[in-house]
Amino acid sequence: MAITIYHNNACSNSRGALALIREAGIEPEIIDYLNNPPTRERLAALIKAAGLTARGAMRDKGDLYEQLNLADPSLSDDALLDAMMAHPALINRPFVVTDKGVRLCRPPETVKEIL
């Protein structure tokens, strides 16, 4: 099974999902999305495939979220996608893609649904 994880090694949820994938005997393709962010089209597709909205896929912790006033409920999905493209740290993680689907693996055990 081919698996891709959009990974941030500084994130405990991301490290946990990666460990669970490896415990299943699979070495995934690891994309360091902070240095190699997905295209806007790919990010939108990941969000949709995971059954989320742009807001649901956005990291809402930290100064950047507040500085950019991203809690404003009037912001459209397009505006939120623009923010995530400009600042990949705003993309929540980890997104995991397998033949069985896409999940935002928070908590990490969510990855088991698609292994």
UniProtKB/TrEMBL annotation:
<keyword id="KW-0560">Oxidoreductase</keyword>
<protein>
    <recommendedName>
        <fullName>Arsenate reductase</fullName>
        <ecNumber>1.20.4.1</ecNumber>
    </recommendedName>
</protein>
<dbReference type="InterPro" id="IPR006660">
    <property type="entry name" value="Arsenate_reductase-like"/>
</dbReference>
<dbReference type="InterPro" id="IPR036249">
    <property type="entry name" value="Thioredoxin-like_sf"/>
</dbReference>
<dbReference type="GO" id="GO:0008794">
    <property type="term" value="F:arsenate reductase (glutaredoxin) activity"/>
</dbReference>
<dbReference type="Pfam" id="PF03960">
    <property type="entry name" value="ArsC"/>
</dbReference>
<dbReference type="InterPro" id="IPR006659">
    <property type="entry name" value="Arsenate_reductase"/>
</dbReference>
<dbReference type="GO" id="GO:0046685">
    <property type="term" value="P:response to arsenic-containing substance"/>
</dbReference>
<comment type="similarity">
    <text>Belongs to the ArsC family.</text>
</comment>
<keyword id="KW-0059">Arsenical resistance</keyword>
